[in-house]
Amino acid sequence: MITLIVAGLGLLVLVAIVVGVVEAAQAPTWRQIAAERRARWEAEQPRLHGVDAYSGSQSYDDSYDESWDDD
């Protein structure tokens, strides 16, 4: 019974080592993919928020309308 427990723990340690090595080997690829996705996401943000990158931006103070202030 003790042998089975020790073998199970040994297998868990072995699997953890293999997973760590494989993940470390693939980390640079995943970092590159993440950087490309972030760049695409950052490029989409102005369009998704209704900001036109070519027509100067308007500050919050310029667009504030007091008629919406209910307090």
Describe this structure in words.
The protein is mainly alpha-helical and 71 residues long. The chain has helices at residues 2-48, 60-63. The longest helix is centred in the middle third of the chain and has 47 residues, at 2-48.
Q: Which secondary structure elements does this structure contain, and how are they paired or packed?
A:
Elements: H1 2-48, H2 60-63
Question: Keywords for this structure?
Answer:
71 residues
What proportion of the residues is helical, as a percent range? over 70%
Q: What integer value in Å does the Rg equal? A: 27 Å
Mean pLDDT: 82
Order of helices and strands: HH
Give the terminus-to-terminus CA distance: 73 Å
What's the total number of strands? 0
Shape: elongated
Query: Largest sheet, if any?
Result: none
Strand content: under 5%
Structural class by helix and strand composition: mainly alpha
Low-confidence stretches: none
